[in-house]
Amino acid sequence: MTSSDEAPAIATDERGFWAWFDTWCQRAGEYLNPILVKETRQAFKSRQFVITFSLVLLCGWVWSVGGLVLTGALDGSSRGREMFAGYFFILGFPLLVMVPFGAFRSLAAEWEDNTYELLSISALKPHQIVSGKLGSSLLQIVLYLSALAPCLAFTYLLRGIDLPTIVFLLFWMVVNSITVTLLGLCLATISRARHWQVVYSVALIAGCLWNYGLFCGVLTEELVLRDRIALYMVDPEFWVANGIIFSAAVGYGALFFLIARAALLFPSENRSTALRICLVVQYLLFLAWAFWGWLFIDPDLEVLMSLGIVIGLHWWGAGAFLIGERPELSKRARRRLPQSFLGRMFWTTFNPGSGTGYLFVLGNLASAVIVLAAAPYALTALAPTATPRIDRSPDLALYVMVFLGLGFCYVTIYLGIGRLIILAARRFTEVSVQLAMLVQILLVLVGTLGPMLLQAWFSDSRGYTILQISNLFWTLEATFRARHTPFPELPIVVTVLPFTALVVLLLNVRSVGRELRQLRVDAPQRVQEEDALLHPSPQPEPYRSPWDEDEPAARLTGAPDA
Amino acid sequence: MRPMIQFQNLHRYFGPTRAVNGISFEVQQGQVFGYIGPNGAGKTTSMRILATLDIPTQGDAYVDGFSVVDDPDRVRHRLGFMPDNFGTYANVNVREYLDFFARAYNLRGRQRLAAIHRTMEFTQLDELAEKPINGLSKGMKQRLCLGRTLIHDPPVLVLDEPAAGLDPRARIELRQIIRRLAAEGKTVLISSHILTELAEMCDAVGIIERGRLLAVGTVDEIQKNQPGHNAVRVRVLGEVQPLLTWLQERIAIHQYRIDGQQLIFAHDGDRESEADLLRDMVLAGFRVVEFGCERRSLEDVFMQVTKGQVQ
Ligand SMILES: Nc1ncnc2c1ncn2[C@@H]1O[C@H](COP(=O)(O)OP(=O)(O)O)[C@@H](O)[C@H]1O
Ligand SMILES: [Mg+2]
Fold first, then answer.
1. What are the tens digits of pLDDT across the range A48-70?
2. Across the interface, do B100 and A7 touch by the CB < 8 Å criterion?
3. Which residue from A305, B104, B119, B193 could staple onto A122, CB 3.0 to 4.6 Å apart?
4. pLDDT (mean) for A200-207
5. pLDDT tens for residues A323-376?
6. Among A residues 247-266, those touching chain B with beta carbons less than 8 Å apart
7. What is the side-by-side order of every strand in the sheet holding B17-27?
8. For residues A308 and A405, what is the distance between their CA atoms, to the nearest angstrom?
9. DSSP code at position A410
10. Residue A226, Cα to own-chain centre: how many angstroms?
C-alpha cells in the first residue's frame, strides 16, 4: 500500500531495468480492476484464504510422501501416472469447488452485507464488477496451480506420464474451473432474495461437487490410469469433441458473464441485445462444428435429428427467458434503436422485449430447421458418390424434415402460450424473468404429465395415443422412430400441430407488432448539450492573426466517460 | 438558472404503501436543503431514487438537468450519496477503503492520491488511516462514509440522516463540515427527523410526511406562514389597558395576556411591521420600556405542520 503512494515519484528514479519494471507495474496497477485490487488486498489479510492455501500445499506434500510409499514408486518403477492422478484430485478441489463457490459467495455477500449499493452508484460498470470478481478467481486459480506446480513437475520426472498429457489435463481443468466460476457469478446475480440465494447456493455446491467427481474421476481413469490418451490423440472424433466442448465452454462462459452483467445493469438500460448476440454466436459456432463433424466423421441422417434436438433446446431455453422481458423499452434504450430500413429489418429482433424475443427465437430456430432439412439434399448434390455407407433414401430425408418441423411447432406453441400468460399476468402484478421461466416449466409439465396421467387413469393403452399430442417428448420420440415402429397417429399430428402453431402465432401478432413499431427517440436536450461539450465535433479553427494575444485555451472539463 | 436538484411529481409505491406520493421541489446550486419529516415519511425512498438506487413509479427527478431514470451514469458522476446505513468490507482499512472508491470513480495515479489525501484531511481521518474499518466507532464510520461520498468531488451531495447516532460534539463538527461544503459551492440535500438540527445550517427546508411535501421554503418563511407565529411582549410605565385598547383599534389581536405592566399578544407581521408598531406606540405617547418579539419555537412549528401520522 505504501509503495503505491509513491507511485508517481519512482518514475524519475534511475535504477535501470528494475526501476523501469517497478514503474511499469505501478502504471499497470492503476488500470487494474478496482475490485481485483481490493479483493487481493483483502485475501492476503484474511485467515480463511491463508488456511485453505496452506491446506492445499499440505495435501500436496502429504501425497508426495504417502503416494510414493503407497504406489511403490520408491522401488524404481515409473509411477508418475498414479502420482499425477492424486495431485489432479487435490488440485481439482480448490479449482472446481472452492473457487467457483467462493466467487458466488463473494458476489452474493455484496447484497447480504449491504455493500453493493455504494459500489453500484460508483463509476464502475456492471461488466467491471463481474470481471473484477472473475479476476480475483483467476488469481486464485493461478496461485493454486503454482502451489502444486512443483509436484506436477515432479510426476513428469517420475516417468509414466508425458508432458502433453499433463498440459492437456490441466488446460481442461482450468477451462472447467473458469466456466463454473462464471456460472456461480451468474447465479449470484439472478435473485437477490434470501431464499433464492440459499436455493442457488445449495444447487451450486452440489453441482460443483458432482462436476469435480465426474471430471477428475473420468479423466484420471480414462486418460491417466488406463493411459488411453495416445489412442485418443490420433482420433479425429476426439478433437472434434474437444472443439465442441471448448466452444461450448467459451460460449456458455460468455453467456453467464453477460447474464450476470445484465442482471446488474440499471433498469432503464438495454439488458438484452448483448445476450441475444451471444446466443446467435453460440448457435452458429455449434452449427459450424456440428456440420463439420457430421460431414467428415459421421454423415448419418439421424445425426441431423440429434443436432436439431440440441439446437431446439438451446433456443427453447433462451426463449423461456426472453419472452419474460418487459415489453416497453425505456427512453434510454430507445435512443440507440436502429433507424434505417435495413437496420430495422435485421436488428429489430435484437431489441429488448418479450415480443421481439419470441420472434428472435422463432427466426433462429426456423433457420436451423431449414439448414438441417436441406442438408441431406445438399449432401446428395455435392457428393453423390462419397461415403456409400449412409442411408440416403428420400424417405429418411423426409422424416428428418417432419421431425424438425414438429419440433419447431412445439417451441412456437409453448413459448407463444407462455408469453400470452405472462402478458395477462402483467396486468395484475410484476412478473420477473425468473417467474417467466417458471411459467414455461410449469406449462411443459402440464403439457406432458397431464395427458400421461389421464391416459394412465382412463385407458389401458400403454402406447402412444392421440391424447399425447401436447406431450412433446413422447410425440417427437415416436416421430423419431416412425420409420421402424409404426406411428399411425402421425398424419393427425402433422395436421394439428402446424395449425395450432399458426393460431398461437396469430394470437401473439398484435402485441408483437406493437413492440416492433417502437422508434428511436432523441436524447434529451441536456444530454446533447453535454455531449457537444465533451466531444466537440471537429470544426475549422477560428482564424487567428499573429497579433492576437496568446490566451490559454479554455479547457473543457467534465465527465470523463459519462 | 438550472436547478441542481429537481424533483418532479415523484411517486414511489411499494404495493399499497405510497412511500412517496407526488413530491416536487428544486434546490439551487450552493444551497443546503433540509429534508425533514418523521420516520417513515419517505425521505430515504426519495433520496435513494435521486441517487439512482431505485426507480420512481411515476414522475422523475433531475440532477443538474439529467434524469435519474434515463441518464443514471451522468447523475452518478455528479452526485455523492451517503446512505443512512451501509455495509463495510472485512479486512480493509480506512485508506484502502477510500483508495478502492477512488479507483471505482476512475481516479488514476496522482489524481487518486490527491483525492484520498484531500478527503482524509477534510474529514480528519488522517490519524485513522491504517485502522481496520470494522473497528471504527459509529461517529468515525459516519465520517469515513462522508469522506467516501466526497472522494470524486461531486457538486451535489445527498446525505441521509448523517447526524443520526452522533454525539453532540460530532454533530457540531458535522454541521461545520456541511457549511464548508456549501461555501465551496456544493449543493447539499440533507435529511433529518429533527427540524432544529437542520434549521441553522439550511438555506431552505422541506417538510415531508406520508410521502407528501407539506411545506417548502426558508425556515423563516415556514414559520411565518403559520398563523400566530410571533409573541410580542410590551412593558409600559403606567396602565396597560389603554395600550390594549389602542392596539385593538389598530390591529386584530387574537390572543393576549396582561401580566402586571406587561402585555403579551400574538402577532402575524414581519420584522418591519413590528418596528412600525413600536414607533407608532411611542409617537402615540405610550412610555414603552421594553419591547420584544419571540418567534414560536421550531418544534412548535414542526408539530403544527406535521400531524404525526405515519403509514
Ligand atoms: N423496499 C421497501 N418495500 C416496502 N416498503 C418500503 C420499502 N422501503 C420503504 N418502504 C416504506 O415506505 C415508507 C417510507 O420509508 P422511508 O423512505 O424509509 O422513510 P424515512 O426515510 O422518511 O424514515 C415506509 O412506510 C416504509 O415502510
Ligand atoms: Mg430514512
1. 888 888 998 899 888 888 877 77
2. no
3. B104
4. 95
5. 988 888 888 888 887 777 777 777 888 888 899 999 999 999 999 999 888 887
6. 266
7. B17-27, B5-14, B58-63, B66-67
8. 10
9. H
10. 33
Res. B307 pLDDT band, cuts 50 70 90: low
Q: Is the pLDDT of residue A457 over 80?
A: yes
**Residue A338 contacts B where some CB pair is shorter than 8 Å:** no
Asked if residues B91 and B131 have their Cβ atoms less than 8 Å apart, the reply is no
Q: CA-CA distance, A300 to A392, in Å (whole number)?
A: 8
Counting ligands in written order, which one lies closest to the CA of residue B164? 2
Contact of A265 with A331, CB cutoff 8 Å: no
Note which residues in 85-114 of chain B have CB less than 8 A from chain A.
85-92, 95-96, 99-101, 103-106, 108-110, 112-113
Stretch (H or E) spanning A372: helix A354-382
Among all bound ligands, the one having the nearest atom to the CA of B82 is: 2
Q: How far is CA A516 from CA A4, A356, B221, in A?
A: 53, 7, 53
| β-pairing verdict for B262-267 and B230-236 | antiparallel
Query: For a pocket test of ligand 1, which of B11, B44, B190, B213 has the largest count of ligand atoms closer than 8 A to its C-beta?
Result: B44
Helices then strands, each counted (H, E), chain B? 11, 14
Which phi and psi (to 5°) does residue B232 adopt?
-100, 135
> Which ligand places an atom closest to the C-alpha of B48?
1
- Contacts A37 to B, Cβ<8 Å: 100, 103
Taking CA atoms, A289 is separated from A59, A77, B29, in Å, by 40, 42, 61
Q: A312: pLDDT confidence band, cut at 50, 70 and 90?
A: very high
Q: What is the pLDDT of residue A452?
A: 86
Q: Whose CA is nearest to atom 4 of ligand 1?
A: B14
Check the CA dihedral B160-B161-B167-B171 and report its sign: positive
Residues B15 and A489: their CA atoms lie apart, in Å, by 51
Tell me the average pLDDT of chain A: 83
* The pLDDT of residue A76: 58
Task: Provide the pLDDT for residue B74.
Answer: 92
Here the cell at position B109 is: 495515479
Given a cut of 70, whether residue A543 has pLDDT beyond it is no
Asked whether the beta carbons of A396 and A469 are under 8 A apart, the reply is no
Winning range, highest mean pLDDT, from A437-441, B107-111, B244-248: A437-441
* Interface mutation target, options B78, B91, B96, chain A, most CBs of A under 10 Å: B91
Ligand 1: residues within 6 Å at CB?
Answer: B 14, 17, 19, 37, 39-45, 311
Of B71, B76, B91, the CB nearest to A45: B91
- Contact A234/B at CB under 8 A: no
Phi–psi pair at B120, nearest 5 degrees: -65, -35
Please name the residue ranges forming H helices in chain B: 43-50, 72-78, 94-104, 109-122, 138-150, 168-183, 195-199, 219-224, 241-250, 271-283, 298-305
pTM attached to this predicted model: 0.85
Average pLDDT (B65-89) is: 91
**B123 CB contacts (<8 Å, ≥6 apart)?**
B143, B144, B146, B147, B150, B177
Return the C-alpha cell found at A388: 456409400
- Indicate whether B241 pLDDT > 70: yes
pLDDT (0 to 100) of residue A559: 40
Least confident piece of the model among A145-149, A380-384, A501-505: A380-384
Q: Average of pLDDT values for A502-522?
A: 87
The residue ranking higher by pLDDT, A546 or A135, is A135
Cβ atoms within 10 Å, residue A463: 13
Determine if residue A157 is left, alpha or beta; phi over 0 gives left, psi from -120 to 50 gives alpha, anything else beta.
Answer: alpha
| Per-residue confidence (pLDDT) for residue A9, from 0 to 100 | 43
Distance B187 CA to ligand 1 centre (A): 25
